[in-house]
Every structure is written in structure tokens, then in C-alpha cells.
Amino acid sequence: QVQLVESGGGLVQAGGSLRLSCAASGRTFSDYSMGWFRQAPGKERDFVAVASWTNLRTYYGDSVKGRFTISRDNAKNTVFLLMNSLKPEDTAVYYCAAAFKRVGVLPTAPTEFGSWGQGTQVTVSS
Q1: DSSP string, 27-87
Q2: Contacts (Cβ under 8 Å, ≥6 apart) of 63
Q3: Angle at alpha carbon of residue 8, lines to 45 and 46, rounded to 5°
């Protein structure tokens, strides 16, 4: 298992920006694709973004394309999520997750990720 700890959440006005961080430990970070998910109260956990274990590919959920950017620093065992042009509907608990490397399509379903952080709250006010 990879241990994951998110940070960087908070309260921001609509149109603002936040950068989330997720620090990993316990396994070789570069062996894992890293994803971000979010879950609003009463809703399912939704895919936000993923960065491949090779650090060559990324993929985004439709609702955040063009606004959010995922990146990773393998030297620091950290993955980031830069969120720009935030909207009230982005309000949720954001989770970092790790999926062991594989060839082919990037993982996007929660069941494909074996390790999860505790989550960090992001609240966007209108």
C-alpha cells in the first residue's frame, strides 16, 4: 500500500485558484499512476484527473478540462492538482489515489485505485 496525505484545500471565491498536493510514501512512487477524485455530499465519488506512472500522459474529467492541471514530481513523491477558474459546483472533498502501473488505458474508475488519502475539503463560494 501507498500512504497518501493531501493538503492545500480551503475556502476560495468563485473564479479563484487553489493548488492541492498529495505526498506519497511507502512504495516506489514512479510505479504508480496518480489520480484525483472528488465527492460532494450525497453524491458519488467522481473522477477528476490522472497522471500516468511514466509521467507522460494525463487525462481529465469533462467538468474540469481546461481549468484543472495535474502534475507530479517523482523526485519529491508528490502529485499536484492546480485548480483555476473555480466554480461553486467544484465544492467537494478531494481525494488523492494511487493505481499500480499498467500498460494501456489510464485508470479512471475508483475501483482501479488501491490506495487513497484521507481527503481535503475544497469550498468555492459564489
Answers
A1: S-GGGEEEEEEEE-TTS--EEEEEE-TTSS-EEE-TTTTTTEEEEEETTTTEEEEEE-S--
A2: 46, 89
A3: 10
Contacts of 26 (CB under 8 A, 6+ apart): 1, 2, 3
Give the model confidence (pLDDT) of 51-102 as tens digits.
999 889 999 999 999 999 999 999 999 999 999 999 999 999 999 999 999 8
The pLDDT of residue 1 is 86
Q: In whole angstroms, what is the distance from residue 86 CA to residue 16 CA?
A: 6
Residue carrying the nine cell digits 506512472: 53
Distance CA 123, CA 56 (A): 30
Tell me: pLDDT of 39 over 90.
yes
| Grid cell 477558474 in the structure block, residue | 85
